[in-house]
User: What shape does this take?
Amino acid sequence: MDTARPLPPRPRVIVTRRLLPEVEARMAELFDLVPNLDDRPMTRVQLETAMHDCDVLVPTVTDMIDAAMIAGAGERIAMIASFGAGTDHIDLAAARAHRILVTNTPGVFTDDTADLTLALIILVSRRFSENARTLREGRWEGWAPSSMLGHSLSGKTLGIVGMGRIGQAVAYRARAFGLEIRYHNRHRLPPAVENMVSARYEPNLDRLVAEADILTLHCPAGPETRHLIDARRLGLMKPGACLVNTSRGRLVDEDALVKVLSQERIAAALDVFEREPQVDPRLLAMPNLVALPHLGSATYEGRGAAGHKIVTNIRSWVDGHRPPDMVLPAPA
Assistant: This one.
């Protein structure tokens, strides 16, 4: 990326969604800031216009920036400073070919997402959604020894698919609940890391899916992981097992999930959906589903830290230094 275009001393920075006030205030001090005042997701045409009119674009992980948009962006844009750790929404090869530097905000949402994952594991295992609905709808008839039963966590097998920062943070937390932790990853972790989080490697994903009492997804989205959990793998899950997804909605075939949930073979907890912000109403009607509106990173602390990382990345490049969170795209 040494050939990436430099930035002017006060670059024009267009942000596609509202950030925390203190982050926007700092950006306005340092840059020619153009915020998205109505905070609505930009259309493709609006994104294309913005890319023509800025030195730096600050998109979120829901803004899809493909090769055609990058190719037509013109010569002004020099940097895409993405808000979020994932980069699957940006065509990195096209960015590199057009000398556009790309940065992200890794690490800041690790603890928040891991915390929410553990919360969902507890909620789905204890049948929170079904039982809370019974209470809200006035159908609760009082405490009884054999009613409204869920499952305890101690002694159950937690299968983690994707053992990066968040997967490891989930494993670390899960130890306190007495869960037996197994994981599948593209590469096995060093023994020291496995020992630290008390996790055992499973090289065969199908075997992990079949043996897990709780399966939680923490792998990146891409062509190779789209519908990683499809009808066949959902069929491998043991009766009474739980599926948790706080990663990317595209990892799960929602049509297949609707079918298996309707059969009440398994339960699920989802914080992300395949066609966000649209959510399949068939899913929301399932009593054995806990559903949240993409809250994994929704803390003041995490969102603030991500915003300040963006400021640091842009300012570093303005000053002629390598941004600390520069993404290295694949060769064009």
